[in-house]
């Protein structure tokens, strides 16, 4: 059972699903960049809730059921503000004593940054995280044609200029084949709709992003915060990830004694596919360890490959 809730982030009303829990821990969750709360979190939120954790899964401003204009624009500073507002709201939910974070892909990079900045967080999970935008962008460009890359850059420039005079956003697809204008053209990114939206289960999910959002995302590098994380943080890394890359996340995990690392076989979406049970199992073990401090026995540190 879950209920619709709303909270304010700098005057913008953000929509969320609240799954009541029973053990004092709450997991605040979002989907990836441009992915709304239902396709991005439902499968994991249901498992966390079944284990007794409260869950708050929310939409960023300008996306899904949340307010904000213009639509489909993803400002990094604004999305981080939404996270901070969600953390504060989660702490007011009935029975919540400790708060953890969970997200994947580029938005898992927000989790890394927040874990280094916000003392309200008891634990955090970064799944298939993009922690180094410049490296990921450079590697991802190998899957794009020169003309496609030029068209994407041109649309981003035009949309950025249009934003100055308040023109409607120029949208791009979240993923697409080589040569198309899309946020990502990597092989695993093209699986996103089939994996997150099987049978068009979530018809309201608009799988587009304002082109003006892309340049800042391309240069966002949360790995620089990795050495300063203040709470236990679990990196769930997929060895064959072509969209977020395993190597930068593995390197980030090595920078902090508070970081645990789980490596899974498969691509960017493996935790939603063949590696789902392994991912959920590792994440629940981590959450029980850090959101239920009186639970016994305490599991050993999570640093292994599956």
Structure summarized in a few sentences:
The chain has 306 residues and is α/β, with parallel strands linked by helices. The chain has helices at 37-50, 76-90, 106-117, 133-140, 146-164, 192-196, 214-219, 246-253, 276-291, and strands spanning 3-9, 12-19, 25-29, 54-58, 98-105, 121-129, 171-175, 182-184, 208-210, 233-238, 259-264, 303-305. The protein is built from nine helices and twelve strands.
Write the SSE topology.
Blueprint: E1 3-9, E2 12-19, E3 25-29, H1 37-50, E4 54-58, H2 76-90, E5 98-105, H3 106-117, E6 121-129, H4 133-140, H5 146-164, E7 171-175, E8 182-184, H6 192-196, E9 208-210, H7 214-219, E10 233-238, H8 246-253, E11 259-264, H9 276-291, E12 303-305
Parallel strand pairs: 3-4, 3-5, 5-6, 6-10, 7-8, 10-11, 11-12
Antiparallel strand pairs: 1-2, 2-4, 7-9
What can you tell me about this protein's structure?
- With 306 residues, this protein is of the alpha/beta class.
- Helices cover 34% and strands 22% of the residues.
- It is built from nine helices and twelve strands.
- A nine-stranded mixed β-sheet has the order 1-2-4-3-5-6-10-11-12, sandwiched between helices. A three-stranded mixed β-sheet has the order 8-7-9.
């Amino acid at each position: 059972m879950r209920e619709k809730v709303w909270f304010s982030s700098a005057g913008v009303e953000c929509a969320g699903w609240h799954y009541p829990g029973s053990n004092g821990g709450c997991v605040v969750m979002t989907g990836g960049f441009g992915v709304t709360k239902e396709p991005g979190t439902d499968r994991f939120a249901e498992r966390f809730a079944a284990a007794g954790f409260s869950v708050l899964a929310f939409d960023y401003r300008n996306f899904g059921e949340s307010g904000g204009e213009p639509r489909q624009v993803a400002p990094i500073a604004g999305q981080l503000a939404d996270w901070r507002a969600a953390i504060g709201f989660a702490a007011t939910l009935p029975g919540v004593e400790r708060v953890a974070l969970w997200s994947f892909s580029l938005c898992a990079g927000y989790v890394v940054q927040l874990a280094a900045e916000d003392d309200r967080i008891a634990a955090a999970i970064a799944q298939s995280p993009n922690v180094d935008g410049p490296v990921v962008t450079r590697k991802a460009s190998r899957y794009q044609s020169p003309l496609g890359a030029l068209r994407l850059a041109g649309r981003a420039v035009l949309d950025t200029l249009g934003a100055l005079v308040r023109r409607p956003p120029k949208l791009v697809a979240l993923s697409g084949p080589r040569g198309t204008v899309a946020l990502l053209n990597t092989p695993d990114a093209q699986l996103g709709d089939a994996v997150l939206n099987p049978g068009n289960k979530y018809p309201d999910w608009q799988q587009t992003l304002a082109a003006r959002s892309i340049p800042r995302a391309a240069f966002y590098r949360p790995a620089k915060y990795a050495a300063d994380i203040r709470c236990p943080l679990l990196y769930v890394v997929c060895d064959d990830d072509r969209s977020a890359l395993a190597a930068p996340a593995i390197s980030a995990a090595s920078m902090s004694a508070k970081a645990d690392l789980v490596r899974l076989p498969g691509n960017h979406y493996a935790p939603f596919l063949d590696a789902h049970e392994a991912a959920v199992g590792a994440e629940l073990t981590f959450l029980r360890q850090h959101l239920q401090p009186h639970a016994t026995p305490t599991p050993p540190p999570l640093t292994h490959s599956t």
